[in-house]
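cron nightly-structures :: item 1 of 1
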Amino acid sequence: MSDQSTAGARLRPADLFVPVGSILLLIAMVGLFLGTAGNTLGYDYGCYAGAARNLLDGKAIYDNVFSINVGTCPGTYTYPPAFAVALVPWLSLGGAAAGLWCVAMALCFVAGVALLPVRRDVRWLIVILGALNWPLLYAVKLGQVEPILFLGFAAAWRWMDDARVVGAATAVGALVKVQPGLLAVWAIATGRYRAAAIGISATVALAAAATLVTGIGAWSAYVDLLRGLGGALATPHNFAPGAVAYQAGASESVATAVQLASSAAAVAALLAAWRFASPVASLQVTIVASQLISSPLRDHYAVLLLLPTAWLVTRGRAWAVVFPLVGWIALLADGEQTVWLAAASVPITFFGCLALLLLEAMVERRASGARTPPASSPIAPE
């Protein structure tokens, strides 16, 4: 067959159906959510922008009054000081800033999918699942930062043996939202010491640069705020195990014990994965566990479950598509009268994914027939 006929065969209209259809579906769903958002468009972005404006006005960026309003947006800013500094240039966009930020979050997801080191058909499947994924659509509508973390984790996965990329993903993730800093620990556990060193040093350098703008007091206020958030099990729209137990009628002490047990289980899963799983499997466990080690747990955090879903589907576990799809159950828990059984679907999904990742890691280890995990991802990107 000539080169011309081969090129023609590759450009058959039928071959474009899935790629074009999946992108159009995502655009339609994101457009629908943004178009009907009303005053909730960029709701979380309003929190970030408020902190950035306070910086410009010389005001404090944190409100450490721990009450029923802890962690709500717009209102209490609950992210690292450096993120508020990074948002200052975005304010120059004026009235269009919130909408453009939401569009940027959707593009972060698309970019993250493009970077996934999986087969092309799995990438299109993740786009389709994203279009049907309540956590992603909700996060984009609010302007929540989870798509940024999705992009960072996807880059770290694709270039997991490139110390510069893993280090950059660690630093950016940790300064947007603390939990992705676990990438540095994962890097140490898998022998990627240079990546950990780059990530830690870059985080310190960027934090120091931000401190020139925010002042050292912003960091102590942030630590105080995190301490308060950890015990705020009555915070609205919190799907952490302890918060769900509290919603179900447990006392505050029992709910706190449940939350501590949940965090301990997530840490145990991390330690187990770092001990026996391959680097790519332990990375997936790190991604999921990073959202479980602290409270609060929001339903839109489940955007990150699309990453282990891609890995599991690539390994032939087609049933993994259930993880992104069950995110809609959390809608039944919305409102003042929280239906705790629906709320429980969020931590159950996270822990279910975590357990199955560990199981798959054991299957992978046995199949490899090797005593030590392979050095990198078994899936070559296309």
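cron nightly-structures :: done
The CA atoms of residues 242 and 260 lie 8 Å apart.
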